[in-house]
Amino acid sequence: MRAFAAVATPLFGWLSLGVPAASAELRYMMTQRGFFHDFAPEETPKMIAAGVRTNACMISADYLIPPTWLEFVGQGVEEIREQLIHHAEQRGWEMVPDPDRPDTLICTEPGIFVLDMEAYVTNNNNPMIHVDPAYAHELLDENGQITPMFEDLIFAINNRIKAAKRFYVNGKVGVFNTVRPHPRGLNMDARMNGYMKARELGMFEKVDILVPNIYIRFGPCDYLNNVHLYNSNDNMVIQGINKSREITRLNGEAIPLLPLTRMVVHDHPNTCHGKHLLPAGMVQWQARLLRGLGVTQWAYWEGDGYFDGRIDEVWTDCPCSNPGLDPPLVHMSPSFTFAYSFLQGDIDGSGCVDQADINAVVAQLGMSSALGLEGDIDQDDDVDDQDLALILNLFMAPDHCVPDQPSGPGYPQQWPIPK
After folding, report:
1. Residue-level pLDDT at 377
2. Residue ranges making up the domain that contains 388
């Protein structure tokens, strides 16, 4: 029996998606409200049956980062542990006295615990300091070398890792944004230098996992200077995985990865920020790409309440910035859409369902298929919004090139198409 990847919506039901999982593959649903099974017990059996684990939690920066630089750097390991105890109390997690220090507690819950350091603190000399490790390079000097403030930052992060390791005795601890790739997969040498300088100071010696941030940054309607940015998403994922693998322990030992993704576009300047992507298309695309890169575990973020039940839409509700290509809100089952062949969508015979094919359907909208138009994807005798929705969905699918010609925009030439 095959396992399937899944998208969970605790308030609005469940959709299982046909993404065959490798036998050794681990997938998690991560939240900031505790473990998923703590607040959605009615959905948990379905998730477990679909092969998705529910015991992963993002520890909010609210519990880890005080408001000022001096407090952030000055907090000791045991003071930070007290904040983690408070976090666990609020979630009803099991705690027992620490055998080594009976005056304090340890958490016996098994699971994944990821420290969220995405926060700013204030300082007299620098009013806003970003303490997220993804921005640690900003505290290096002009030559990219370690400064006293950079040392203090990594010392403070290490204290939080130590506190988490002492507290979550049956769990695995990681730090979010290790790494955070460039949204378009472009140059990130300065950021990587920050990670590598942090490595020199021992930041990655105690973590159990690295947590690359591979949130989808661009929706299907995001353009920059007339360049369609949606296909930059796979470059970002490839960069995130490869750059994370460059980070090792000081003895060269590799550190396991747990990439974190989500079900919506996540980048504030873009047209589709906070909007739904096709759950099926997105999950299948990223799952296959991750497998092709040799990744065996990842997590889905469900923490901000973006889900509103519209999990079976063909398209998102984000408007296209390209005139004439606003996608219709057509409701249909993803399985209905995926029944259509990519050969049907490859109108111009290029080997891929691409922007030219979308433009061809747009040009034929409202025409009768009695004229023999290829834009009538569903063959219902006219080219209408349903056909536009289908061509857009085929374009977004992970394998939108026909098998004999795997050279389309969805996958860079230097990487094989994941099967």
Report:
1. 78
2. 340-419
